[in-house]
Amino acid sequence: MAIRVCSAQFSGFWEDPEKNLEKAEGFIAHAAKSGAHLICFPEQFATGWDPLSGKNVQDLTGNIITQLQNCAKANRIAVIGSLREAESPYPRNTSVTIGNNGRIISTYSKIHLFSPAKEDDYFIPGTGLGIFSLGLLTCGLAICYDLRFPELFRIYAKKGVQAVFVPSAWPASRIRHWEIFIQARAAENQMYVIGVNTTGTTPVDRYSGSSMAADPYGTIISRANEAEQLLFVDLNPADVTAARAALPVENDRKDALYHSLLTKK
Q: Cα(first)–Cα(last) distance of the chain, in Å?
């Protein structure tokens, strides 16, 4: 049975969580009325992504997550939102999945911090996975730069994940890589990959949207342009099962050999 999800391609107010959350409420209500089971927002949508900012850092009981919890419960829809999560000595870049009952069902902190912009100097990397269920669909979380690291998606596939959501702030200057990586991660792991990008210009960079989803064959099945918008797509767990059965790549992997080659001098 297909599960409808919504990517919220969002252009936010810089460092203004209250305005962005108010705006997000309308997006959430519209997605729910359109039959979506889940809506996913871009990376740090409530503030704008800024690897150097120490502003608006909150824990999971702060206003950003609690307002999303209230919206999820009121509209009976799951919500993925992200924030600068308070931690010591630096915050984490964290995505949170909230179930349609308003309860947190998964968290994931960005493992691969974007060192070219010094994100690794101001944030702590995550060390765990973010797995949750959406009906019969097993889902995982990654964030933006994680797309460049196939190992994370490989682990998700081995854990039985069928769809990975990737909230992002992927710049316009590298948007071609965005499409390549989404398709590659989907095809090589025979899973859905849903990239949810921001759009507009911030003090950090210019973003061109292009949120998209690829199916288990690596085919793009939904794609946004540069405009702020809601993008809907139906995900079917049976399609993942069928793709993996038709081309059983997993049976031909040589994980033990790969490890020995890596460690061999």
A: 49
Do strands 199-201 and 137-141 pair parallel, antiparallel, or not at all (unpaired)?
unpaired
Structure tokens at 95: 């995505």
Instruction: Give CA–CA dist 6/4, Å, rounded.
Output: 7
- Torsion angle defined by CA atoms of residues 42, 78, 218 and 241, in that order, rounded to the nearest 10 degrees: 160
> Domain limits of the chain?
3-263
What one-character DSSP code corresponds to residue 162?
Answer: -
Burial class (CB in 10 A: 0-12, 13-18, 19+), 127: exposed
Mean pLDDT across the stretch 90-119?
A: 98
Compute CA distances 180 → 45, 63, 143, 162, 166, whole Å.
23, 36, 16, 19, 14
72: which 2 tokens? 């999820």
Q: Cα-atom radius of gyration of the chain, to the nearest Å?
A: 18
Q: In this structure, what token pair is assigned to residue 124? A: 């702590």
CATH 3.60.110.10 is right for the domain spanning 3-263: yes
- Number of neighbouring beta carbons within 10 Å of residue 225: 12
The secondary structure element, H or E, covering residue 71 is helix 63-75
**pTM score, two decimals?**
0.97
Share of the chain above pLDDT 90, in %: 99
Judge contact between 106 and 142, C-beta under 8 A. Answer: no
Cα dihedral across residues 85, 43, 183, 38: positive or negative: positive
**pLDDT for the residue numbered 145:** 98
